[in-house]
Design goal:
The chain is mostly helical. Helices cover 74% and strands 0% of the residues. It is globular.
Length: 154
């Protein structure tokens, strides 16, 4: 059975891989304090071997780096603690998802949340994905209110 390409040219599998790599890169960036450019360079060669959407990977990492303060501030009302007290993996997942929800309206909110949950399950603490899900559900309801309400009416 042949899979039909999407009309927009986006390969969801490659995007998923890009998000996983971006999570690893943002996590490394958070811990090391290296620049986003250095982290991208470090991960780019590995990215090519995994066959992922390199452009999207770079957009996520650069976007989180450039907008970190605004993303953290936007997330704060949905957190039960300061962002710096959130587990580093979940913090990276939340920052990436917040970037996508706020700056990438071309990506459906359900895709953003689902991908965040799946990467949290794979890399995060045992129940970290439930925390991520709760934060992002509430954030998406505010940040993407029209889209969320339309989906609920279906």
């Amino acid at each position: 059975m042949n899979k039909q390409p999407r009309r927009d040219g986006i390969d969801p599998v490659l995007r998923s891989r890009a998000r996983r790599r971006a999570l690893q890169a943002v996590y490394a960036w958070q811990l090391s304090g290296a620049s986003a450019r250095e982290v991208i360079a470090q991960f780019a060669h590995e990215q090519a071997r995994e066959i992922a959407d390199l452009e999207y990977f770079e957009d996520l990492v650069r976007g989180v780096d450039a907008n970190q303060d605004a993303l953290d501030e936007a997330l704060q009302p949905y957190l039960d603690r300061d962002i710096d007290q959130v587990d580093p993996i979940e913090r990276a997942v939340l920052r990436i998802a917040a970037y996508e929800l706020r700056m990438r309206p071309d990506v459906p909110y359900r895709v953003v949340i689902n991908e965040a949950i799946e990467t949290s399950k794979k890399f995060g603490a045992e129940h970290g994905h439930t925390y991520v899900n709760g934060v992002l559900d509430r954030a998406a309801a505010d940040w993407r209110a029209v889209e969320v309400q339309a989906a609920r009416r279906r």
